[in-house]
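User: I'll paste a sequence; please echo it back and then give the predicted structure.

Assistant: Echoing your sequence first, then the prediction.
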Amino acid sequence: MALDRTDPEAEVAAAAKACSNWGRWGQDDVLGTLNFLTEAKRLEGAALIRRGESFSLSLPFDMNGPQKGWRRRTNPVHTMLDTGTDAALGNQGFPHGIGGADDVIAMPLQCSTQWDGLGHIFDHGLAWNGRRAEEVVTSEGDLVTGIEHMAAPIAGRGVLLDVGRAIGEDGELPDGFAITAEHLDATAEAQGVAVGRGDLVLVRTGQLARARRGDGWGDYAGGPAPGLSFTSAGWLHRSEIAGIATDTWGFEVRPNEFEHAFQPLHQVAIPHIGLLIGEMWDLDALAADCAADGRYEFWLTAAPLPVTGAVGSPVNPIAVK
């Protein structure tokens, strides 16, 4: 698919029209492509468990995370409210020698391994399903498609597309590499796995592994990265997957494929396709296991925190093989 790299607005409009799911599940829909993840699909995913080995796909939530403060996105700040010292000194006022510890965490909901909710991105003032953005998300939060609606459905068949191993060098794609539909299909074929309706697809680029080997996170958060090409919008739509996540900060290739553009694939995928997007997922241990046993499908559960009205959420995804 050829892109006019000088006209992102026209390209976004064309892709949005071609890939729109508006009205597909009714005017009141709040789940988007999660509608594809049915009870039957969950049973299919559960049947994939053979060894019972589980993998957490989350980064640690701590001050050593990748964020650099862009748009007030900071790393988590963990603070103790009560400690063992307080208990030992008898400062807690509890009877018969009992003591305890309590803590609190302050963080943006999208500072580490997370889901983008349907209220996260708008296109020309319109949110998912054609609703007006100002009527969906206000200072009180997402009043319509808050992430809490997705707390139960996200469990089913997970599929890893390890594009880094399949077509990269030494298991990684270089920054700026645009993953096309052809790359996704070629990876699935090489791995002997099919991708279809209701699947939760994980795309490994290898960028996270590269960041780990460095002296720090560098430009991982917001800098150049491999990722999904804008031209993959059609694949995301016609494959009817329930959700997709990557091991990168921004899901799509960066720099973006247009002049003077910012995350144009998000602008199509979230408000028009209604697609659930995950970012900063740690896929390396799972990918190594998949490469070892040749099985790239598994049970995956990845419920967001049901924060009422939130437009995104931290998540600790668990893959079980």
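The longest helix spans residues 8-19. Residues 222 and 245 are 16 Å apart (CA to CA).
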